[in-house]
Amino acid sequence: MAKTRTSRPAGKPAQTGKHMLDLDRSVHREGLAAGFRTIQEIVIAARRNLSQSLWDTLSGGSDSETTLLRNRQALDSLALRQRVLVDVSSMDTSATLLGVKLPIPVFIAPVGNFLQLADPQGAVAVARAAAAYGTEVFISTAAKPDLETVAKAVSRPMLFQLYVRSDRAWVKDILLRARAAGYRAICVTADRAYYSRRERDLINNFILREGSGDPRYQASLTWDDVVWMKQLTGLPLILKGIATAEDARLAVEHGADVVYVSNHGGRQLDHAQGSIEVLPEVVEAVDGRAEVLMDGGITRGTDVVKAVALGARAVGLGKLQGWALAAAGEAGIVRMLELLEIEIRTTLGLMGVTSLAELNPSWVRPAQPVMPASVTNNYPYFEGRR
Ligand SMILES: Cc1cc2nc3c(=O)[nH]c(=O)nc-3n(C[C@H](O)[C@H](O)[C@H](O)COP(=O)(O)O)c2cc1C
Asked: What is the Å distance from ligand 1's center to 318 Cα?
């Protein structure tokens, strides 16, 4: 069974003074989070807590939202196979990411300044939740508060995600700041050469400025730049936004330690393939020379198991992280991860699998989706309440 992890050490004295309100709020939220028995209740709470424009900016995608929906449709187009009469009374759900053990093959993907709009603690709440549960978290250049403040809030090293906002002197400065603050790897997001057209935000007049800077620097990024960044920092390099075998091969040739399959959760190139559709060709192209991560549409334990079966070492959560934060802050994220762990254990147990190492593509089969794709189609109770 999943252990109950609390996000605040037992017996930690209550703070007084200006932080009192925040603490009251987090205690309240911990109590609230403990009451969630399912992930769908978390999503229902998030929908209730978020304004229409915040819900849209978190849950929507670019243009026609075809990529956004394909992430879900592609996951729903896979069925799991099951074997029976296997002793599944004990099970190992752990995975590793660049040498660090995760309790389940799930990490927190980089999310920008949405976090602070959903919760005043912003990225600090997310970092603390990830540390309390024991998993990895990417901290975005666009997240607030700044990377040093987030690093000071937890004792566990994290992964820094870079957006390029200015010239090499600026990049050098921020990467060396991240290294000095203890981040253990750098992640370059490569699928945002242009900021996409997020029409929900445009129609809602919701202009979320993901920081200042000149967008031409991000647009002019090339393979030479990532080689330079790795040499500069001496840190492991994660390339996020890889979606073809060709780029996966180039990523490895240019020194990527991790190839991170992603279409930005359907928020960048529209009419792309679903993430899990491109995962097999990337895994084949990488051929064990780097670790392969994936994100896009993961909302349940069954999704996680499908991605691991097709070769992902671990999967990232974007929207689900945002929903859990909006539902109950730091404690909401911890609870969501606990529930995901329960779902993964139940799924593996019913498949007759006792360790993630047993999973391979033979555990999945093509299948007809049973419902139209939507970002929340995995939550029938939520859908029924809309
Ligand atoms: C509100 C929001 C903000 C995001 N901000 C960033 C970011 O700052 N940097 C980045 O690399 N990806 C960002 N992403 C993309 C996520 O890291 C991730 O690739 C994506 O959300 C995964 O798909 P999912 O939302 O379906 O889980 C963001 C996603 C969302 C939903």
From this structure: 5
